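OP here, attaching both records as promised.
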Amino acid sequence: MSYQQPLRLVLLTSSKSSGGAAIACMRQARCLTQAGHQVTVLGPEDWWPAGLTGKWTRWLFDFRKHLFYKYAQIFRWKRGAMFSAEPWPSTNPARMRHPALTEADAVILHWINHGFLGASDLQALAELGKPLLWHMHDQWAFTGGCHYSGACTAYERSCGSCPQLLYHGPRDASYHQFEERRRWATLLGRRLALVAPSPWLATTATKSGILLGSDVLVRCIPNPFDGEVDAHRVQPRLTPSATLTEGVGGRPKIFFAAVNPSDPRKGWELLILALEHLGREGLGCDVEVAGKVNRQSRHKVQALEAFGHRIVWLGLLGPRAMQEAYGRADLYVIPSLQENFPNTILESFAAGTPVVGFAAGGIANMVVEGRNGALAPPVELGSLSSSKSMAGINLASAMSRVLGHARPEDLRRGALESLDAVRPGQVAKAYTDLIHSMINPTRHTT
């Protein structure tokens, strides 16, 4: 279905440059613009005054954001938890009368935490009477405040006694936020669409008690990826290294990005166990690590050299250098226990590099065993030590299957071809069709 009339769209995001959600938002804005729509991206800074006053406002905003985050880390959350509640101090719903919002045909929410939008802002958005689409980057939109629920399924009924909060009870912060969102979902009905990049997140969203009895739409539309632009003009490497095809030329190269090693969900401990197992099996690798890590985590990774690996620290990389690192690798490993739709997997595919991870969350929707990588069985957060040991062995086995594949060139070609499902034109059409169906519900079937 094609539409001659371009849409006026506003994307709301707490950041236009920092973090995976910001990257996905700006890629989506570009693909919708390329489809002929008039797209405006608004972040906190778009309400700040110009000049010195604006700089002072930015400083206050960043200070408030980091102060509240540190306070919550120490006094509200359990270690490793990721939970967001109302911004502090209170928000200003008058901002939702921004000309771009009042004139828009539809509004798309992205990451709105870190002091950007709160309940009063969302209520003001609802009162504009426009279709609202919430492009979800995790579970936060349909829980009582956690970004990833782990083994907890309370959000399927009603939150409360949240296991991620230090001080919790039947009517804790998660309960109140859950009930508030349930009222909001009931009010909006089919004017609200929760859009999940991965089938896993879409399925999880449909189970939420927040949607019970409402007509809120849940749809699955992936994040777009333009191989020409988002790969920063780094050409994919479709020829496997001589190490894999002929057993010469050095060690296999493994690449992974060090992101928040203190978060148990990121699976650092299991990756280290997996690499230890590979070393004991006599498979020493060059392990390239991108990112910034603390001294303790760095020491744990460096200790892998005792198992025959060689660790190469790349530090913080720019986008092009990151893409080149994917291309050098024989595999990219993402050991997360729960993820939505990682940009890093798309970036690895763009380099023609197969991916290894656990068959958990959206990773299981992106990585196909024997086609573009390999998967280890999922493991739950909080598992016993014996289960963790087995998970490490399973992850090592998945890496071995990629490194020992009979036709590694097929894996590299399969990785690149996996981007066909996230071409910008397809994503833009899916969003266009959904928005038109929400504007004119009687003229469309869903």
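Record two, same layout:
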Amino acid sequence: MWSPRPEGGARVRWPFLFVLGTLMVSWGCATAGPPVLGPRDVPDLERRALAEPNNGRAQLELAAALAASGRCYDAMAAADRGRRLEPADPLGPLVTGRCLEDAGLPGHALELYSSFLSQYGDVPGAAAVEGRRAMALQAHAREQVRAALQEEEALEPAEPETVGVLPFVVAGDSVYHPLSVGLAHMLTTDLALLGRFPLVERIRLGALLEELAISPEMVDPSTAVRTGRLVGASRLVLGTVSIPSSLDARLGGNVVLEGGEVVEPTLTEGELRQLLDLQKEYSAKVAEALGYGLTEVERLRMEENRPANLRALLAFSRGLMAEDAGDFAGAAAHFRDALSADPQYGDAQQRFRSAVGADVVSRATLGEVIQVASRVDQALGLVPEPSVPSQVSPIPAAGLLQSTLGGAVFDVASHQSERSLVDAGSATPAASVTPSENQVVPPLEAILTIIITIPR
């Protein structure tokens, strides 16, 4: 691995203890723990590391002090010694990865974090590494996009099977706009379960749109060729969710193939409250339009990849939007809301953990890196809080959260007679919703999908 030299550096089964405990709102409040390390600590730590060459923790603490002193090259050497002795200690990747990130090498840091988590993802303090990984992933996506723009003329054609799913275009009340990323995430993860299509990461597509200063609405068949080429996708999926003021809804879509042929999937219909079921049918149709027929086992696997209700999906979608904007504290709150609506929501569990980790580590200096792993675990409720006053916000019991859409829309909808007609070909479906108790439920009108095969 390159070392920076100085000039002249389906369900997630993690412990869900925080459902029974509390979530700290102010992650950065004072906590007891190891001292902040800095230049003054280096001499003593060097003597200790020299006297105890087989003490991996001593090597890692020296690395942390060296990094906090601006000596990242020496810090990485000490961290390397410590990681060989204590490979499961998160302090090693936290020090080395931070030095790599500060040297402008988020891709190298991302590789380090991912390798550690694949082996030691359940050890105490691993959530802090997850947090740094989330931050490095965003930085690496921006780096890739900028490099592609600079070398656009020399880019090789994408592999023919590579698929990218852009954020959906949402027309209607702004309360539904988070579904733009939520539905794109669901489709991406559904396709990933098949193991058939190389997929462009959603965050990379978002980074490209941000770098080009364009919105998903501006990507159409005429601009999709360049968009796909820049992210290495030979086919792009474009989706639209329309939410009108009327009470009619319809789901439809077309698939545009490489030769210009248009495939119109068959009609699907069901109740509005079954939209998550319809989304799974929709994912299956997209896979078939891409030339892949699902087995019954694959269909079942795809069916299980879902939240329990629409309320959870909307809260999760808001979390993704906050995460994309770098607001990890806000993202954690939204993912917590999603878990209140569905405590078994695996994607939300994973994202909550990494968002809390990212928020805590983003506030820590290099000198505080020795404390950060325990701080993250405390924020997650995985270890007892020190006896220091702090602001806490209890997690509401499942079903009690009144999110904007959850309380105002879907709690009402769950007690109404409703019906949606889904036509994947005409893009003009309808659903009748009979409000009860004089409350009107804004419906989902449509998801219009276009798959564009980008010519090589």
